[in-house]
Write a structure and sequence with these properties.
Strand order of the largest sheet: 5-9-4-8-7-6
Radius of gyration: 17 Å
Low-confidence stretches: none
Shape: globular
Number of strands: 9
Mean pLDDT: 96
Number of helices: 5
Bound molecules: hypoxanthine
Amino acid sequence: MQSTLFAEWKDITRETPYGAVAVKTEGRHFFVQRHGIPPLPPHRINYRGYIWALNALKVKEIIAVNSVGSLKPGLKPGSFVIPHDFLSFWDVPTFWDDEMKFTVPEMDEELRGRLSKACEDIGMERPASGIYVQTRGPRLETRAEVGVLKKMGDVVGMTMASEATLCIEAGIPYASICSVDNYCNGIVGRRLTMEEIGRTGLKSLGAIETLLKKLCEIK
Ligand code: HPA
């Protein structure tokens, strides 16, 4: 997120079993720039490090902002989705490499509902539900891949399922507001460009910032 909303928040560092993690904080709130500075590509993000750090900081819940492409013509760029489920067959992260522990994954319905209500309260159109499909990146999906994925889900991104999985393991309620920044490759006639994704994402940033201000009670 290219937001300056958290620029003035205090920088802290937390040591974790997965390396040191940079966190910003103000009052009882914390902010993590998941890609880091300078930004790392999605497949190199230290998911375990920052979810571990946020858990150690005893956060009660996590609201994430994720950029996605739309797999459905009716789900337009510029709109928002609060996923109710996700699909990620590959590279599933875990805190439990050395323990025989399992989870039955599901998104936190109570937090999803509150997030949706907060969107409505600030005058955003009610975000759709949807199934989030996670790909590894950093390249986008081929048209052939999108042809398969559109039968499985509603939006595609490279980050949310990993975070949701680890939060479920850590017992932290997690919900995501996904900014639909493009139609996935081949969903509509025109050629997809990275510029289009950046441009739409930037346009949606204002609404996201207003939402985060409301959630963090920033004046
Ligand atoms: N695919 C994967 N990740 C994304 C996309 C996409 O089309 N748009 C934004 N993040």
